[in-house]
Amino acid sequence: MNHYSSERKEAVLKKLLPPHNMTVAEVARQEGIKPKTLYNWRHDAKKRGLPVPGKTT
């Protein structure tokens, strides 16, 4: 299991936001990270109040 620094996670998640607007699949492929991992990171970031793409409730 790989462990990624919070800085690395933040940098990867920024690719999902403007101006990049990449999809999870694109970022996962580019970064060599499983899509499920990115979804988990996005979920965790949302819980911490950070800007993340996706549906708002």
Estimated share of beta-strand residues: under 5%
Mass-distribution shape: globular
- Alpha carbon gap, first and last residue: 32 Å
Computed Rg: 11 Å
Number of domains as seen in the coordinates: 1
How many DSSP E strands? 0
The residue ranges in which pLDDT falls below 50 over 5 or more consecutive positions are none
Q: What structural class do the secondary elements suggest? A: mainly alpha
Assembly context of the chains: single chain
Largest sheet: none
Protein name: Transposase
GO biological process, one term: DNA transposition
InterPro entries: Homeodomain-like_sf, Transposase_8
GO molecular function, one term: DNA binding
Task: List its salient traits.
57 residues; mainly alpha; 3 helices; 53% helix; Transposase_8; DNA binding
Offer a concise description of the structure:
The protein is mainly α. Helix content is 53%, strand content 0%.
Description:
With 57 residues, the chain is mostly helical. It is built from three helices and no strands. It has helices at 6-14, 24-31, 35-47. The longest helix has 13 residues, at 35-47. The protein is globular, with a radius of gyration of 11 Å. The termini are far apart. 11% of the residues are buried.
Summarize the helices and strands and which ones pair or pack.
Layout: H1 6-14, H2 24-31, H3 35-47
Organism: hydrothermal vent metagenome
InterPro entries: Homeodomain-like_sf, Transposase_8
GO molecular function, one term: transposase activity
